[in-house]
Amino acid sequence: MVVAQRVLITGGNSGIGFEAARQLLQLGHHVVIACRDAGKAQKAVEALAPVAKASGVSVDSALMDLTSFASVRDGAAKLLARHPRLDVMVCNAGVMSGTRGFAAPQLTADGYETTLQVNHLSHFLLVHLLLPALLASPAARVVVVSSELHRKALAEAPAAAAGAGSTPGSTAAPAAPKGPDVGLATPEWLTRLRSPSAATAAGAAAVPAAESKRLSGMQLYCISKLYNLWFAFHLASLLPSNVTCNAVSPGWVPGTALGRGAPWLVRVLYQTLCPLIPFAVSVPEGARRVVSVCVGADEGAVRGRYFARGAQSDSSSESLDTAAAAELWKLSMQATGVEEYLPPQQQPQGLQQQQEQKEQEQQQ
Ligand SMILES: NC(=O)c1ccc[n+]([C@@H]2O[C@H](COP(=O)([O-])OP(=O)(O)OC[C@H]3O[C@@H](n4cnc5c(N)ncnc54)[C@H](OP(=O)(O)O)[C@@H]3O)[C@@H](O)[C@H]2O)c1
Questions:
Q1: What percent of the chain lies above the pLDDT cut of 70?
Q2: CATH for 350
Q3: Does Oxidoreductase show up as a keyword for this record (predicted)?
């Protein structure tokens, strides 16, 4: 018998998120879709309601715009009031902008590059805000939707391989620099993705606009998907035993609206012709891969893993760079204004603390 879980999915009104919501309802789970647009949220809930009814479960929506930390905070507070317990949280919403390398970066009102904020920073903040509900579950899961394109993060920004995001011991000859020249998890890097005014307000060095103009939407997307893995793996190492965190790639799913930033003709061709390519994944299959990490029995038994093509898989070597993940974590806390990510009683003892405690015990 299925034990009904309460699942929150960001970006649940469209593409993989919408289809995952439908499948979860069919399987007998309650679903809350987090959306930025009230009209789209209502339309999606209306479309999902018959499925929920047939399974005897509920579907509703929560409003939040991931381009705004204030909106995320407001949406999370309302959600917690309605749902003090969540069993699964899916960080699914994402954007890939059509920005070309020569165009000015698209910044949010918080002063961050939009892809970085929607795909990573706002989910980082949202999971933190919803931890009380996840910790209230006897067995909760955080599922971060990444992409195989995380492998391209350094390839797209080759000179960054020399920085903190690189794999120690890598002997690969650096390609001609066409991207940023600092590590992807360094303050210098994140500062490059901020508006000069926001950086100055925070006391950081302002970035010359020309520096920020060098990244295309694809480069930013790949980097954000590597950030998803650094986030998921580091979070998994911090969470108490009743909450797991894993990452998943749905595969290449050209039938969704992800490429909406591209010129219309490219978009239409992409969405209609690409799904016919043999290795393209259908929206239902992409969603099924996400759903299995949300509620599958085997997937619930592991933490800090990456799933691709429907099975546990190796992620890129740089995604396993724990120092870079920890550095990104620190920077993300600063960016989102989070002082303590986990409630104090849930914080795992750091290795150093454990060592100190051992030494003290030996001295006594
Ligand atoms: N499609 C692929 O080939 C593929 C491959 C690997 C990974 N993924 C990942 O799968 C996830 C879902 O993408 P998809 O392909 O299903 O694309 P999609 O159809 O465009 O869905 C993206 C969802 O994110 C929401 N979203 C975008 N910006 C937001 C914001 N500022 N605030 C709140 N919600 C926002 C969208 O809402 P609106 O409708 O209001 O814009 C939409 O519901 C993404 O994380 C993506 O990186 C996709």
A1: 77
A2: 3.40.50.720
A3: yes
